Amino acid sequence: MSAPPQNPALAAAIASTTRRERTTRAALLAPALLIILTISVLPLGITLVYSFLTPGTYGGVTWEFSVNSYLQFLFDRDIFDDTLSFNPAYLSIYLRSIGLALGATLGALILGFPTAYFIATKPREQRNIWLFLVTLPFWTNLLIRTYAMLLIIRDEGIINTVLMQIGLLNAPLTILYTDTAVFIGLIYSYLPFMVLPLYASLEKLDFNLVEAGYDLYANRLRVLFHVIVPLAKPGIVAGCVLVFIPGLGAYITPELLGGGKKLMIGNMIAMQFGASRNWPFGSAAALILMTLVILVLLVYARAARRKEAVHD
Amino acid sequence: MKALIRLFGAASVLAFASSAAMAEGELNIYNWGNYTNLDMIKKFEEKHDVKVNLDGYDSNEAMLAKVKAGDTGYDIVVPGDYMIKVMIGEGLLEEVKPNEMENFKNVDSQWVDVWWDPGRNYSIPYQWGTTSFTVDTTVYDGDINTLALMFDPPEVLKGRINMLNDMNDVINAGLRYLGYGRCNGNQDELREVLDLLMAAKPHWRTMDYATIEKLTSGDVDLSQTWNGAAMRARAQRETLQYAYPKEGFTGWMDNVAVLKGAPNLENAKLFINFMMDPENAAMTSNFARYANGIKGSEEFMDEEMLSAREIVMPEDAPEPDFVTPCPQEVVDLYNKIWTRLKQ
Q: Subcellular location, in the record's words (chain B) (predicted)?
């Protein structure tokens, strides 16, 4: 730390500079803050308020305070009888969504790690091309990419046609409209979100440490799990967060590839604002989802802080 | 909060208005997606020197939610029968009195005194049709006119069925199969419906609105669908046949109406009158493949539509059942059944 300046004039000059800097900083931040406030915080506030109101006839809300939306999430007041009983319907929708998102995250990690490692170990001038190829699918709309996937895995799609032509199959593999299809779709959609942060971590990896590991008679697996993975951990965590969160709220993929027989969180929330005519419950369900996401982010933030503490 | 919502609404109207302000007048139409014949729109634009802006929705409820949120800038909407009744009740529609317009004489008298708009003070017919199902007769060659094919399917159809991803259409079909009334608040009967649906669900492959594509791609051999969609699907898969189940099926009509506070009220009225002209109504039918309720339009309709089984009901088919909007308690129960079914 530098000692406080002795000269009062210099001190005043520094103070005025910081003041000016502060004004500049505020001016530069203001537009972004304004946007965040109006299009993020304000709607969130409306959602929060709505979740504590009573549903209006044919949609909308009436201004009567109620916690029914939150009760409804776990309990059932009047299906078929009037007692308040535990209702696992919504919970199981959430659990299935979480399970699918976790599975997709794991799948993306298993596929993404070798990819990122491969790119990071290429000569520097080739890496940009590989990264470009990873981000290439983003040039196409998610809906179209998902639809393309549907065409590939359907009963009369490319995979089944080829496998049956070469005689490996007698009847088509039923992949489409199953959970497997949703997994494949989610992994495919969000894989770049896994590869990019992993690459950022692995690129900075000091391969002398890997060499050192081998010199100390570690085998390949030990080097991977005791040297590379710990050093790539920030990238792993970031990648997992970036895949898990959009996977949790995914709407198009389960709808198109899952066949719509089972509700996912996103579809269930959308339904409340449509046919179910229950905006407060839709708002409450959205907030519960958001709370889950924030919890995940908190875990991430804590992991990042721990890492910083280690470095200091 | 209301004021803020208004403000956003006003901003969106401004954006809307500035996007296309070339022609003399404008008309903003909010219709179901893939349901408007663009040639017909062009004809209207040329006839009245009006620039038409078209926007789409995929369900009555989505449209209602948007309209209820406030100033959308839309002039014309095309709600289904029950939604017309809801919107009149909520004060969302302008009473434009189509029944006093020049072309009203063309409206088929059976569509004038309808329960959703008696005497037609707010709306006019756009298209009408039925919601039943269509099945590939080479896969299943038995009697197709029964809902049992969906709820207790023969071996060949198991796992080859698409249901509409629509709470009302699925539950109403279940109620008909069991012989119970629509908009049913009877809990014992609803419990039976839930059991029926749960037992049938393993035999359904998908629940999706994209019925034409499901059928033509060979993903399924039976799909709950609308008659016009069934006809479009048959064009690509000739062995499909549209069923008129003996237990009954849903009838519906979409209607052209003007929103309260429509920014281009006079043009909207011109459009209402325009849509009651037989030639213009036929243009819509030739595109969307449904009947239109305007007398004299047959003359301008494609030959094949006049004899198609999807449009011309067989003599022995039951009357289509036009389902009224259900009270909130019933919607809540339906909603729970639907969530249980899909949990």
A: Periplasm
Q: Which ipTM was obtained for this model?
A: 0.74
Give Cα separations from A104 to A112, A154, A235, A298 (angstroms): 11, 20, 17, 21
Amino acid letter, residue B27 = L
Sequence-distant (6+) residues with CB within 8 A of A195 are A112, A115, A116, A119, A134, A239
Give ∠ CA B252-B258-B261 in degrees, rounded to 5: 145
What whole-number distance in Å separates Cα of residue A151 and Cα of residue A213? 46
The bridge status of strand B25-32 relative to strand B76-77 is parallel
Q: Which domains does chain B have, with CATH numbers?
A: 2-128+253-307 (3.40.190.10), 129-251+313-342 (3.40.190.10)
Question: Do A202 and A109 contact (CB within 8 A), yes or no?
Answer: no
- Within 8 A of B191 by CB-CB distance, chain A residues are 80
> Please, what is the angle between helix A229-248 and helix A88-120, to 10°?
140
- Residue A122 DSSP class: S
Contact B341, B201 (CB under 8 A): yes
B219 contact A CB<8A? yes
User: pLDDT digit string (tens) for A268-312?
Assistant: 898 888 778 889 999 999 999 999 889 888 887 887 777 666 655
Q: CB contact, 8 Å: B342 with chain A?
A: yes
Which helix H or strand E contains B113, and what residues bound it? strand B113-114
Instruction: Give the A:B interface size as CB pairs under 8 Å.
Output: 86
- CA–CA gap between residue B160 and residue B210 (Å, rounded): 15
Query: Cβ–Cβ of A79/B336 closer than 8 Å?
Result: yes
Query: CB A177 to CB B62 under 8 A?
Result: no
Rounded to whole angstroms, the Cα distance separating B195 from B173 reads 14
Q: Is B69 exposed, middle or buried (0-12, 13-18, 19+ CB in 10 A)?
A: middle
Backbone angles phi, psi at B117, to 5 degrees: -160, 75
- Identify each DSSP E strand in A81-153 by its residue range: 85-86
Q: pLDDT tens-digit profile of A138-177? A: 888 999 999 999 999 988 888 888 998 898 888 888 889 9
* Per-domain residue ranges of chain A: 87-311
Strands B250-258 and B321-322: parallel
The pTM for the full model equals: 0.80
> Across residues B309-322, what is the average pLDDT?
92
Work out the minimum CA distance from B199 to partner chain A, whole angstroms: 13
Contact between residue A169 and residue A160 where contact means Cβ atoms under 8 Å apart: yes
- CATH architecture entry for A87-311: Orthogonal Bundle (1.10)
